[in-house]
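thought: fold this chain, then report.
action: predict
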Amino acid sequence: MLRYLDIPLTWLVLGGVIVWGAGDAVPLRWLLGPVLGWALCGVGMALALIAALQLLLARTTLAPHATARHLVIQGLYALSRNPIYLGYAFFLAGLCMIWQAPYMVLVVPVYLYWITLRFVAPEEHRLTQNFGASYLAYTEATRRWL
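observation:
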C-alpha cells in the first residue's frame, strides 16, 4: 500500500497541507499575494502537464519508479531534466502566496530536496543504466532544475 502512496504528488499534497496550516496559524496579508500565487500555480501546473504530455507522446512512463522506454530530451526537457517536479515546486510556492503565508516558501527547497532523494536520484541512476552515454551527455547539457 505504501508504494502506491510514494509518488511525487503525495509529497506535493503534504507540502500544501503544511503551507495551508501555517497560513492559518500565522497569516501575513498582502494585496498581491493571491495574484502572484495564482500565477505561480498556473505556471507550475502548465509545466507539469506539458512535460507529462511530452512523456506520453514519447510513449514512455510517467511512473517515477518504473523504467523509461525512451529518453525524452526535447521541449521542456531541453530546459530542465525535471520539469514535472519543477512545476510542482512552482505550484507549491503559489499556494504559499494564495494562502497568505509567503514565509512558507521555505517549504519549497525542502520539498525539492526530498523529491531529489526519493525520486530524482533513483531515476537518474536508472536512466544512466538504461541509456548510458546518451543520458550522460544530456546531463552535461541540461541542468537538473533550471
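thought: worth noting. The chain is about 65% helix and 0% strand.
final: C-alpha cells above.
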